[in-house]
Amino acid sequence: MDGTDNDVVMDGQDHLMTATTTTTSGTSTTNGFMGLGGSLDSRNGESVDGEDDEEELEFGGSYPRELRERRLLATGLCYDDRMKLHSNADFGPNPHHPEDPSRIAAIMTTLKKAGLVYQGSDADLLKIIQTEPYKYMWRIPAREAKREEICLVHHPTHYTWVEELSNMSTEELRALSIQKDQGRTSLYVGSLTFEAALVSAGGAIETCKKVVEGEIRNGFAVIRPPGHHAEFDQAMGFCLFNNVPIAAKVVQKEYPDKCRKVLILDWDVHHGNGIQNMFYEDPNILYISLHVYENGEFYPGRPDNNMIPDGGMEHCGAGAGKGKNINIGWHAQGMGDGEYMTAFQKIVMPIALEFDPDLVIISAGFDAADGDELGACFVSPACYAHMTHMLMSLANGKVAVCLEGGYDLEAISNSALAVARTLMGEPPPRIQIPKLCHEAARVLAKVQAYQAPYWECMRPGIVDVQDMTNNNSLRLHDVVRTAERQRLSQEYGMIPLYVQRDHIYKSFENQVLATRDIHAAKRVMVIIHDPPALRATLDPVDASLDGHNAWATEGVSGYIDWAVRNKFGVMDINIPRYVTKPEDMDSHIQPFDEAALSRHIEELVCYLWDNYLQLYDVEDLFLVGVGKAYLGIKLLLITRDVKSKVSGVVSFVSNAPLRPVKSDVDEYLSHWYKDNSRVYVSNDHACWNNAELTRKVNKRRFGTVIRSKYKGLATMMQEHKKEVTTWILARSSSLVGVEDAQGETTEDDKM
């Protein structure tokens, strides 16, 4: 037998085609061409793939030397019908399984229909091979992986366990499938599972080897069963052998000078726990996974052994491998092009460029694709093309794509086609990137913070909290509030009000200020507002922040000034977005969630009403809500009977939800709120983008909603100040000593 790479006959045996293939014209060529459609199972004489037996000639064998030297290389394609022999032995009432043999057949059919796989006549075959074989995908013969190759990443007892499946009876296999297809293991087996798994791993190996050798430009291994869940000592998650790690270790071992550093990019919707754990301490393999995490609840979930890391973003590797494990774990399903493209631009590509790999292997699961019900995400074929294109800029274009999951046949086929076309040199299609989900943006910020200690490109804008704490540094929101308190004290004599509630005292210490004579004032304005918005221009070199390039913007002080000049008592309530604790060490801390914010605000406003506001002998009480904190007005109105004391309510809303005011015990409350409120909503608020929402917010329970011409809280408050103060004056029962909206004294005051 010579050393020529030959295609195998799809009969599950070790027979090889001869290197010489006789064409229909009677001539012979030595290019390893083979008719996949005519592959017969020697045991029953039927086509293994179930398709017609019309001969289809495909590329294979050794790539023309002259074209290799000129770097006119084709994209490789590895496929073998024997991988379809792995099927479910449990023929129960629901025998269908998502990891079905038709997955790879559907992809191959789509590649053929798109013209990426050669299906022409023998007469044109020689000319194409000699002149432009890169027009089609070049066939990479699959083979069975060797035991010693598989045991580079798997324990020998695991190999033996899979091997023994071939010796089990059908009854034993069915019982084992029922047992294993439960919980985290989630696996089925059949009589030919071992053989199919060997070919799947061998296909990954051969694809990576051809790419590293430079015989092809890049390659796509359409293989199954998948591999990225398989642990070193057990099968799980539809996976028997972990194909990509096996291939990575083989090429590192056989080509130490050409392939030392490998990047494995896993975009399967599920975390590749097996790949992570195999390379968790390996400094030469960078594993990046984009997956749905859902706080550890999404498959594969948390391991039974809590010492083993899961797919959380805090798990960055160990020992020499610190920083070489990157988990971009989405908070929920439903992610799409906006989230994946941003993750690539902000995390994946900067780190990959800094790592500078010799080979890129994509663990290409397509279950995040739009249309896959199991993944329930919305990644488009165009997005997969763009991600592939970005990865092709690494490692001199040496990219090997190995199929993992993906269970909707149309979605997986269209996505694989987009990737294949990109590998072959087609530019990615034009794409309209949706806006990034806010929660996903926070996920990416936290990933950056976790990776900052290990990667230079991740450090700009990231603060070492432990170092700040050790240096007795102050958080900026505390500095800003202290400065506000001092300014309001100096200009208006405002002092802190004591909040005598143990569990909210520290949260709102110095956050509630009042003018000294508020208890004697006939008119009182209560302003409950968000903290000032911080805006800054970072240094373009090191992303540092200079104080002279930063601003704190707020519109509240202008209203306090007007109220004090018009003899109003003023209570200023600042609602912090988060109350830091000594144990907070994260570089990026999310603000209070809706539930926590509601609890804090409700307890505070009720305390202030019960202990201060309802006790004042006030004739006119006005409530002003600003930003997310305007939730406090709703909570006060529905938990306390304040209608008889409140003369009017004014709110400014930019990017916060609009709050309905409705009570089960006070049917008149919504009517009162409509008649006694003005709710200014920014021009770019989401409620104006939908006719149904616009109709809804005009109902009385939302108050008198006014669409502002302006955007941003500070701008709205400034531009509507004259209108608001005029409205407040018109509703005041006593105007003695009150200025008009322009600041002039009224006739009553002159008299």
TrEMBL record:
Its EC number is 3.5.1.98. Gene3D superfamilies: Histone deacetylase domain. Residues 18-30 have a biased composition (Low complexity). Keywords: Chromatin regulator, Hydrolase, Nucleus, Repressor, Transcription, Transcription regulation. The keyword Repressor applies. One of its GO terms (biological process) is epigenetic regulation of gene expression. Its main location: nucleus. It is found in: Nucleus. Residues 18-59 are annotated as: Disordered. It catalyses: N(6)-acetyl-L-lysyl-[histone] + H2O = L-lysyl-[histone] + acetate. One of its GO terms (cellular component) is histone deacetylase complex. It comes from the Eukaryota. Residues 48-58 have a biased composition (Acidic residues). GO terms for molecular function: histone deacetylase activity, hydrolytic mechanism. Residues 475-732 form the Arb2-like domain. Residues 97-422 form the Histone deacetylase domain. Belongs to the histone deacetylase family. HD type 2 subfamily. This is histone deacetylase. It comes from Rhypophila decipiens.
